[in-house]
Amino acid sequence: MAEVRTPPVQLKWDVFVTPGIPSITADLPPGAKQRLWSPMSSTLISGKRDAVLVDAFITVEQASALADWVAASGKNVTTIYATHGHGDHFFGASTVLERFPRARFVATPDVVKVMSQQASPQFLASFWDARFPGQISGHPVIAEELNGNVIDLEGNDLVAVPLGHTDIENTTCLHVPSIGLVVAGDAAYNGVHLHLAESNPHTRREWISALDKIEAVNPSAVIAGHKRAENDDSPRIIEETRQSIRDFDRIAETTTTARELFDKMLEIYPDRINPGALWSSARDGVHFPRRAVHPNS
After folding, report:
1. pLDDT at 231
2. Quick one: what percent of the chain has pLDDT higher than 90?
3. b/e per residue, 180-193, with b = 16+ CB within 10 A?
4. CA 87 to chain centre
5. How far is 280 from 255, CA to CA, in rounded Å?
């Protein structure tokens, strides 16, 4: 008699968005008296019993609120997955793990390398603690390397997809084919100015290729790592992010100062939040030689 296979459990997903918080820095955009860090998202993908949490914020306070939210779901968290190595997406994992000690904290090997750099004592002190003094766990946990590229959740595959450079090197997204979901990490933004300060004309082309890769799986929902809480998770944010990069490169070709690049981008995107990210991007963007890459490459 042929074996009758039971269909996998239908998964669900939900998103927790933590508001932007003040960041201590002298690098303020024109006219600003304070700089905020962009709001961040964390995604809970759940079956009947178990769940996988994607990304875990930065401060102890944010991560504690996230853990409360996850606990209220009643799900058994088996895995925490980090989409990429920026500290604001994984420093909170140590706090979440205190509440869910049986969960595995995983990331792809390339992401783990970046995480180790971000959590090094020197970088932690000079960058992260300087901006968020007394707010970050003194013992950030580095993820273990994911064996392969699939996380199983009650018979459903959650697939880690390498994307290369987006707003930092060696980023990934998590694709859940059974429900058409992509948790994009910082490959996609939603109503928030992009962090382009760690990019150059060549790597921004890589970012566009990463967005093409996400679009190719035809997702029904795309969750941005930085998003406005009230915005939906429509796949249209793929093209919105792609167009933002193209606009930035186009304007950078014809401007000579950071202020001019900043102002022209604000004219196009006046309603996006966190102009501080745009200001840092503009300050960095004007320093690269024009035509740094072949125009048709």
Report:
1. 98
2. 90
3. ebbbbbbbbbbbbb
4. 10
5. 15
Q: CA 253 from chain center: how many Å?
A: 27
**Res. 292: pLDDT tops 60:** no
Helix residue spans in the chain (DSSP H): 60-73, 93-99, 109-118, 121-123, 129-131, 201-216, 236-252, 258-268, 275-285
pLDDT in tens, 33-48: 999 999 999 999 999 9
Query: Confidence band (pLDDT; 50, 70, 90) for 9?
Result: confident
Angstrom distance (rounded) from CA 161 to CA 113: 16
13's tokens: 């997903």
| Token duo for residue 48 | 């009947």
d(CA 91, CA 108): 16
Tokens of 272: 């996006």
**Can you give the length of the chain in residues?**
297
**265 contacts 285 by C-beta, under 8 angstroms:** no
Residue reference for tokens 């994911």: 146
Cα–Cα separations (whole angstroms), residue 98 to 77, 86, 103: 12, 21, 10
Q: Say how many Å lie between the first and final Cα of the chain, rounded.
A: 57
Task: Return the number of other C-beta atoms located less than 10 Å from residue 215's C-beta.
Answer: 16
What value does the mean pLDDT of the chain take?
Answer: 93
Whether the pTM exceeds 0.90: the reply is yes
CA geometry: angle 162, 168, 172, nearest 5 deg: 20
Contact 194, 277 (CB under 8 A): yes
Please identify which residue in the block is written with the tokens 């009643």. Answer: 74
Q: What is the mean pLDDT of residues 57-75?
A: 98
Where does 183-274 have alpha helices with state H? 201-216, 236-252, 258-268
pLDDT number for residue 8: 76
Nearest to 37 by CA among 64, 67, 17: 17
